[in-house]
Recover the amino acids of this structure.
């Protein structure tokens, strides 16, 4: 799982991967991630939601969860 998850995160488009890594791995707050990326807090929230959804879909497709 760890190897597959790393590959799945790496395969995300950069704008989604960056925000996912900052928020979920580096544990930045939303305002900190927004400042780091030079985007609005709303953009961070939107991109993070999309990144998590894409990652969840990849995990489902790989058979890690049942829908």
């Amino acid at each position: 799982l760890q190897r597959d998850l790393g590959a799945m995160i790496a395969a995300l488009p950069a704008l989604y991967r960056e925000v996912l890594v900052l928020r979920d791995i580096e544990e930045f707050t939303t305002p900190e991630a927004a400042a780091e990326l030079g985007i609005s807090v709303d953009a961070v929230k939107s991109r993070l939601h999309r990144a998590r959804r894409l990652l969840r879909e990849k995990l489902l497709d790989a058979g890690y969860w049942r829908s």
